[in-house]
Amino acid sequence: MVDPLNPSDKAVLAKAEILVEALPYIKRYAGRTFVIKYGGHAMGDPEAAQDFAEDVVLLGAVGINVVVVHGGGPQIGAMLKKLGVESSFVDGLRVTDKQTAEIAEMVLSGRINKELVSWIANAGGRALGISGKDGGLVKATKVHRTRKDPDSAIEQVVDLGFVGEPQHVDTRIIDTAVSAGLIPVIAPIGVGDDGHTYNINADTMAGAIAAAVGAARLFLLTDVPGVLDKQGGLMTDLTPTGIAKLKDDGTISGGMIPKLETCVQAVEAGCDAAVVLDGRVPHAMLLEIFTERGAGTLIRND
Questions:
Q1: Closest CA to 193 of 145, 144, 141
Q2: In terms of C-beta distances under 8 Å and separation of at least 24 residues, what long-range contacts does 93-98 make, across chains too?
Q3: Measured between alpha carbons, how far is 63 from 51 in angstroms, rounded to an integer?
Q4: Residue 205: which of 223, 194, 189 has the closest Cα?
Q5: For residue 109, what is the DSSP state?
Q6: What is the pTM of this model?
Q7: How far apart are CA 262 and CA 259, in angstroms?
Q8: pLDDT digits (tens, 9 = 90+) for 35-84
Q9: What is the dihedral of CA 157, 160, 163, 164, to 10 degrees?
Q10: Which of 121, 198, 136, 120 minimizes the C-alpha distance to 171?
Q11: Residue 272 in contact with residue 217, Cβ under 8 Å?
């Protein structure tokens, strides 16, 4: 009989209670797909990378199909600086000439992609590193942006170079990998009808893939706890209508706007729900999915 005063026995019981709490969620999501965008400064932290890989492998072990889409902006910036290539940005998007595009593909599809594959392998999983160019996964189209001239207030077209966005997602290579028990790890690179290679924002890429596979969840791992109200409190549940109001009153601004726009597009196009949460928190995804209290901001359709 368990001694209720024994601290070690209490710890064991607490672990058992965690498993019991997680069971209904495991049953709910078994056989479904999670698309996870992994990026931010957590990518540069080996301990955080190990935690992330362990979470991915655990999700797969309980029957959830996992698809990882990774970013790499800081790493691209570091490589460009190392090679003496100047960078400029428009509304948070890097202006990408041919040389920059080649360097971005090298960093994303090479170094970062294979590092993540290795982390997942070290955690006991089997991953397949690809980009949007492989198997015709993502057909890209060139991004067009406009901005007002500060002096004349006239709208001007800005050429971002080889920056693209998903035009079409062909999920066959993902389906093949998942059916073989592999975890696709995808670099945000696509090819256009013009044959050019395009660098794609990783959030946008993940959202398009989540919609195409009908994911149960799209996770955007960021460097913030989620969407915060004006007092700094975490908002745990949002809808597209609520997000529009928060944009209008200035509660959300800056880099959070395109992230939430990605979430809205994904849930309106077939993904059950999206979650914005802090990738720096150990096992944040597991807390969000397998506990009642969650860990980030959940976005569902109205």
A1: 141
A2: 93/143, 93/145, 93/160, 93/163, 93/201, 94/160, 94/163, 94/199, 95/159, 95/160, 95/161, 95/163, 96/160, 96/161, 96/162, 96/163, 96/199, 97/161, 97/162, 98/161, 98/162
A3: 19
A4: 189
A5: I
A6: 0.89
A7: 5
A8: 999 986 667 678 888 999 999 999 999 999 999 999 988 888 889 999 99
A9: 0
A10: 136
A11: yes
In tens, the pLDDT along 267-293 reads: 999 999 999 998 888 888 888 888 776
Nearest to 223 by CA among 283, 273, 262, 281: 281
Which of 50-54, 187-191, 294-298 is modeled with the greatest confidence?
A: 187-191
pLDDT tens profile 107-123: 999 999 999 999 999 99
**For residue 145, is pLDDT > 80?**
no
User: Which among 221, 71, 90 is positioned nearest to 143, based on CA atoms?
Assistant: 90
What is the per-residue DSSP string for 240-267?
HHHHHHHHHTTSS-TTHHHHHHHHHHHH
Strands 89-90 and 93-94: antiparallel
Q: What is the pLDDT, as a whole number, of residue 280?
A: 82
What percentage of the chain exceeds 70 in pLDDT? Answer: 89
**What would you measure as the largest C-alpha separation in the chain, in angstroms?**
81
Contact 218/207 with Cβ under 8 angstroms?
yes
- pLDDT on residue 151: 63
Amino acid making up residue 130: I
Distance from C-alpha of 107 to C-alpha of 118, rounded to nearest angstrom: 15
Distance CA 151, CA 78 (A): 33
What's the length of the chain? Answer: 302
The secondary structure element, H or E, covering residue 73 is helix 73-82
Q: Which residue has the tokens 């409190």?
A: 233
CA atoms lying within 13 Å on the CB side of residue 216: 16
